[in-house]
Amino acid sequence: MTVLMVTAAVYGVVQLLLLSWPTRSVGVTTVLLAVLVGVYACGTAAALLELSYTRLIADQTDQSLMRVVNTTAYSPLLL
């Protein structure tokens, strides 16, 4: 599933690159570098956010961290 999501995102970026080719003021390498930095930053931010809120919920509810992670991985609305 992750591979399909990454493929769809890259396909969307390529489409935008092709559509904006005549009017773009930055190079293709700059756009691709910005996409890679964005993917890296978003992944890191999501991991840190998940670590912080699962530990916070586990501390507040006196549940094990594993149970909180399994529950929130399914749906954050179940708690």
Write structural notes for this entry.
With 79 residues, the protein is mainly α. 78% of the residues lie in helices and 0% in strands. It is built from 3 helices and no strands. The protein has helices spanning 2-19, 28-61, 65-74. The chain is elongated and about 60 Å long. The relative contact order is 0.07.
How does the SSE layout of this entry go?
Layout: H1 2-19, H2 28-61, H3 65-74
Report how far the terminal alpha carbons are from each other.
Answer: 26 Å
Using only C-alpha atoms, the radius of gyration works out to 19 Å
Number of strands: 0
Task: Give the uncertain stretches in residue-range form.
Answer: none
What best-fitting shape do the alpha-carbon axes yield?
elongated
Largest sheet: none
Helix/strand order = HHH
How would you classify the quaternary structure?
single chain
> Strand-residue fraction?
under 5%
Count of runs of 4 or more consecutive helical residues: 3
State the share of residues found in helices, binned by percent: over 70%
Mean of pLDDT: 83
Structural category is: mainly alpha
